[in-house]
Amino acid sequence: MSLVISHWSFAKDKGQLTNDNSIKYVILMIVRVRFLPDDVTVDAEVGEPLLDVADRAGVFIPTGCLMGSCHACTVELEDGEIVRACISAVPPREELTINLFSDPTW
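Predicted structure:
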C-alpha cells in the first residue's frame, strides 16, 4: 500500500520515498556496538552516527569542533583503526567494539 504525494511515493511499510513514483524497500542492518572500557552494549543501524549511538547508550565521548579536526572525539575500533566519532558512522558488520580514549584535557 502506498500513498502518492506529488511526484513522490511512500510505502507505509518498510518503504522509502523515491522521486520516480516507485517504492524502494530498505533492509535495515543492525549492528551490536560495544563500548569499552565500560562494557556497554547497544544495537545500532548501519550508517548511524557514532556520537548518536554513544549518546543513546549513555556513553560520553568528548567533542570539540564536531568536524574531526580537533581529535577530541578520537576512538579506536577493535581492528586498531583510529576514527573520529563526530564524523564516523556505524560500518556494515555484525559487531563493533569501540575503545574509548581517556584524555583529561577534554
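Summary: Residues 50-57 form the longest helix (8 residues).
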